[in-house]
Amino acid sequence: xxxxxxxxxEKWSRKWFESDVYYAKDFDEREKRYVLVExxxxxxxxLHIGHAFSFTGGDVYARFMRMSGFNVLFPMGWxxxxxxxxxxxxxxxxxxxxxxxxxxxxxxxQMKNLGFSxxxxxxxxTTDPRYYKWxxxxxxKLFEKGLAYKDEKPINWCPSCKIGLANEEVIDGNCxxxxxxxxxxxxxxxxxxxxxxxxxxxxxxxxxxxxEKVKAAQINWIDRxxxxxxxxxxxxxxxxxVVATTRPDTNFGATFVVLAPxxxxxxxxxxxxxxxxxxxEKIRGYVKESLKKSELDRQKDVLGRKKTGVFTGLYAxxxxxxxxxxIWIADFVLSTVGTGAVVGVPAHDxxxxxxxQQFGLSIKRVVEDDKGNRGEVGSIENVFVGEGVAMxxxxxxxxxxxxxxxxxxxxxxxxxxxxxxxxxxxxxxxxSRQHYWGEPIxxxxxxxxxxxxxxxxxxxxxxxxxxxxxxxxxxxSPLAKIEDWVNIDxxxxxxxxxxxxxxMPNWAGSDWYFIRYIDPENDKAxxxxxxxxxxxxxxxxxxxxxxxxxxxxxxxxxxQFLYDLGEVPTQEPYFKRISHxxxxxxxxxxxxxxxxNVVVPxxxxxxxxxxxxxxYLMFMxxxxxxxxxxxxxxxxxxRFAQRVYRFVTENxxxxxxxxxxxxxxKINEVVGDVTKSIENFRFNTPVARLMETLNLFESxxxxxxxxxxIKNFLKLLAPYMPFLTEExxxxxxxxxxxxxxxxxxxxxxxxxxESIEIPVQVNGKMRGKISVRPEITEEQLKKKIFADESMKxxxxxxxKKLIYVKGKIVNIVCN
RNA sequence: GCCGAGAUGGUGGAAUUGGCAGACACGCAGGACUUAAAAUCCUGUGCCCGCUAAGGGCGUGCGAGUUCGAUUCUCGCUCUCGGCACCA
Length: 815
Description:
This protein has 26 helices and 32 strands. By secondary structure, it is α/β, with parallel strands linked by helices.
């Protein structure tokens, strides 16, 4: 019979989704497993190969767990708010709602074609008002608990998208979405205080089984450090400057102070509040120039970049050395880091050294380096930033860096010159976007009462119908133009008030979506608490490397916050996180339209079928590595599928009731290997094992294989090739569906064989094999080896030692 | 610069308590079938010497070390990829 993938796949796809084979049952007696894959943004271009890769991995695992007897929740939904849809809507003059509907329908059809075993009764969509009602509810709770506040902040502004971006959305100074350079701009923004949870977000990782690189990425991003803020008096004026440092042990080597151009003192100088001797116009010119620079320009060529700056004419007084330190303004100091002012220790900081050299400031070594150098620091190679031993530092001399830091911190605090503080690389989260296609932030600004939350019972604040979605150049959301929506009575005082017109960032809807799958129709709560207790936490979360920091951090934060409110049952949302690699184009470059190397799943499913596409994606290489697409290798999997089909259909009447020893041993071994591999998310090797098994089947007669073994073989293959195996299962006359049948069991006891082959090494080199009974003793083995001419000739000189690892290997040591 | 991962045939990759390196697949070469091509099937395929043999030598990025034995463990390098970064 000929293998017709198209016919088979259409037939079973329909049948599966008409039945309940993939339904997850709330409160079922079986042990639960919540398998989550990142839900996609339904773009107009359809399912991407990366989606197919990720979802196939999840599907193989979910199917395996289901057959292993677990009650598996494997849901899917749509993260549908976002700029591409909005931009497309503007271009086509259509409603984003309609476009989203079309796109999700297309995605869903493609997913069904690929045979993913999602439970579609739990489908969610972040743009559905019944969903975003709860996204808005979470925001109200954040506001209520003081974790959301409004503030004027310099934000990254993309002039092309006309949108404010979080630091995380700016890649190398460019907009993450459109790639254009960003600038900075002050806007009043809603900010969420994620930093309040910084320590918890680090500590919570201990309770998870995330892979090491994900944990490291999260901890790195949060990056907690202990700082001390030191206050210096300024000579001759009644002002102070506060610098922040993590290396106060080097403070005896401080020779200057640098302010960020945005610093308050700079404003005071320019405003004439502080009189300086220097040419104020020169200072003004420098500050103006640097504020104009975008983040891109300021970060360009970071290493070895020529430092710029201007002297203020002021001096800070170092209480430790009693020396005066010139105060400079330079754009290498960032206003958003520390206090926006740093103390220059050129001998022990590369940037400070560059700056000192540029402007002829003095350089003083105060740490002996790890090679014992105590001399002058004359070149950049000698700048020592590591930990060493303090010198030229009065009472710190001779102390190791860590001890010196502790001692000086205590000293500065006692003297009232410094204050310790904990700071993070993680910043508070800018939560406002000036766009239409997002969740409206449910807040009302009242002339009298200030910011008033929309009452819970009035949620959702639905997106109004608009004529024009175009963002404005003023930075206002397009919603601001809809007056009858914006103007509203204050819920508190009934006076005149206006709605917030900003919408939420993309992350908002995806922070908590896994909760909603548990109870998608609930209109009283995020989800029913009993159901949450049954299903949470997510047992395995599969997704791309690109979401290992931000999405994961944001959603863990929101979940921890919900835990504090008593809304969710566990401290952490995800138990395991498995991240997969990227599929590159056949040219080993990232797939992109401009490179013309994009492969979409449909290309393959149309030509070769979904079973082949799925299996090939898994067979390509390890799930977590980055692999280039290779069109040719696909054919190997196609051949395999055909051979499986042909072998089973052609031998259907031949299969016996008992395996030959060889077949029995092989299938048992493969059951063990495949099970272990899938459990550990190594999805590539089971395919190879199953190919080996088929090779063996083909080399023996059908009569040497039992029907039971064929059935087990199909079960092992079922997670990879759900359609083909279902078809063959039915051809074998078995009852629907293979995907609900129990996974084959691995028999532990080793099969007793007449003889085994033992490799023989001489001085560690393989010289041959010898066939022996398994229970042979070392003595007998030795005799047998030396009776064998072909072995004996390799043994030269005296035999010093013979090592026999029972049943595995022999090594003869001689000289 | 910091953090993380990695380096195995022509290619993707196997090999986890240290024990037969190269499973499986692609590609390539030869053959069968065919008027022919495609498809399919069979055989061979790490490199070098050797007669297309027998046989031997070399071989998991480089250099040392531990061990009877190292792709695997230790130390020191080189390079590649991913993330972060004028973070003071």
